[in-house]
Structures are given as structure tokens and as C-alpha cells.
Automatic annotation (TrEMBL):
Gene3D superfamilies (alphabetical): Vaccinia Virus protein VP39 (3.40.50.150)
Domain of life: Bacteria
Gene source species: Actinomadura rudentiformis
InterPro entries to which the protein is assigned, alphabetical: Erg6_SMT_methyltransf, Methyltransf_11, SAM-dependent_MTases_sf
Swiss-Prot/TrEMBL GO biological process terms: methylation
Keywords: Methyltransferase, Transferase
Record domain Methyltransferase type: where: 15-117
Protein's UniProt name: Class I SAM-dependent methyltransferase
The UniProt record lists the keyword Transferase: yes
Length: 248
């Protein structure tokens, strides 16, 4: 997520839908948002809750910020209509068979004028992973589709969102997953996979200029994720007007 493009201000109510281990939820909390970390996996949420507590104890978050975890189903979000100022749905829609139902729920709980940021695996890196390994995409709870950006945007536009631009991310990560798929997705001890993983950890921790520049070049070509930004219209125009606006 590019928080220069997806600005979060203190006090905004933000949903991290399908938060997983909580990467985006933690950053939202540091920025002073009132965060709801939402996921189906109770074990993941337990870890996120512990980290929220540790961040509070260490003084890493503004005094007025709040954070909570909520377990539930993306197809039936337990929140009222027009509830959140912003929503992040990162690397989750590709796991959901009825993705448009989940998109409808995201539209429902987002305030008019609110913003949504969605990330999914990019088409080309994902196609390579599927070709290299059946286990990569057939494991329970795994990926059920490969999106093109056009498909993702079309589905969310059909739901009622407006598109606000996109970019790619994690160009350095795509080769790692190709290696994993080639040697076995669960074979974390393989020397090549292990060595590349260490490089990624070093890059995340140190963020050297050389890898930052390399990833900037690689992202549009083989970025592992595509990030697309959307807005819920403040008022819903008649169908004919929406079609004219989309054409423009």
C-alpha cells in the first residue's frame, strides 16, 4: 500500500478486511486510525491482538488511536452501513469464490466518499506460479482465481465503486515465489529458497538504495501484487449518467 496515495488521518475509522498477520493494520494504528482488523482465522487474530497490545505498551501509537480485532465472514460483514472512512482488502479477494458478494459488502460498510484499496496477485507472476506448482493453488483456502487488473476494476465498478488509479508492488518477491513453486511450496529449507528469503528479510529491514531502485524498475514488469484504489461515490448517479462518466 502506498500511504502517500492512500492517506490515513488520525481518528479515521479504517477496516483491514482479511488482515491476516496484520501488516497493514499495524501501520494504520501507527498512523492514528481507529482500526478494525477483520479476518476469518481466529489464530491470526490472536497474534494481531497481542501485537496491538505490545504497540500500545511500547508507545508506538498515538494516545487517541484505537484498535480491535473482529472475527467473521467477508460475505456477511458484521458492521452497519456507511461505517468506515476507508477500507483495505489486501491479498484476500483471490481466496473468495463469491468475490462480488464480498465486494458488495465492502461497498455497503464504506461511507459515501470513502476510499477502498485492494491488492491481488498480479496476473503474470501468478500465472507462472500456477504453471510451476499445483500445490500453490489447490491447498485448502488457497487462490481460486487469477485476476487481470481489468477484471478486478470491472467487477468493483459494477458493484458501484469508481477507479482512482493503480500501481504494482513487490517486484523482488515474484522470483522468490517462482523458486518456491519450483522446489516445493512447503520446502522452506531448500538452499535456494532459504537464501532468497534471507535477501528479502534483509531488504525489508535495511531498505538499501540499490534494492529500492531495483524494485522500482521491476514492479511494473513482475510486481507480485497489483494495488488498485477506488472511491465510493458520495451520491449514486442514475445508470445512464454512470455509463457516460465511465466512458469519459
Amino acid at each position: 500500500m502506498d500511504f502517500q496515495r492512500f492517506r490515513v488521518t488520525p481518528g479515521e475509522r479504517v477496516l483491514d478486511m482479511g488482515c491476516g498477520a496484520g501488516r497493514h493494520a499495524f501501520e494504520l494504528y501507527r498512523r492514528g486510525a481507529d482500526v478494525v482488523a477483520f479476518d476469518l482465522d481466529a489464530d491470526e487474530l490472536a497474534g494481531v491482538e497481542k501485537m496491538f497490545g505490545a504497540m500500545r505498551l511500547e508507545g508506538e501509537v498515538p494516545e487517541a488511536a484505537a484498535a480491535e480485532t473482529v472475527q467473521g465472514d467477508a460475505l456477511d460483514l458484521p458492521f452497519p452501513d456507511d461505517h468506515f472512512d476507508k477500507i483495505i482488502a489486501s491479498e484476500v479477494l483471490e481466496h473468495i469464490p463469491d468475490d462480488m458478494k464480498a465486494m458488495t459488502e465492502l461497498l455497503r460498510v464504506l461511507k459515501p466518499g470513502g476510499r477502498l484499496a485492494v491488492t491481488v496477485p498480479s496476473w503474470l507472476p501468478e500465472r507462472v506460479c500456477w504453471a510451476l506448482s499445483e500445490d500453490y493453488h489447490t491447498a485448502p483456502g488457497g487462490h481460486v482465481r487469477i485476476y487481470t487488473r481489468a477484471e478486478l476494476e470491472a467487477k468493483l465498478k459494477a458493484t458501484g465503486f469508481r477507479v482512482n488509479g493503480h500501481h504494482h508492488a513487490h517486484g523482488l518477491h515474484a522470483p522468490y515465489w517462482w523458486i518456491k513453486c519450483a522446489v516445493g511450496v512447503n520446502n522452506d529449507g531448500h538452499p535456494l529458497a532459504k537464501a532468497y528469503h534471507q535477501i528479502l528479510v534483509w531488504d525489508i529491514m535495511k531498505r538499501p538504495l540499490a534494492t529500492r531502485l531495483a524494485e522500482r524498475v521491476m514492479n511494473p514488469l513482475i510486481g507480485k501484487s497489483v494495488v488498485v484504489y477506488f472511491t465510493k461515490p458520495a451520491t449514486r448517479a442514475p445508470a445512464g449518467e454512470r455509463e457516460t462518466a465511465d466512458a469519459v
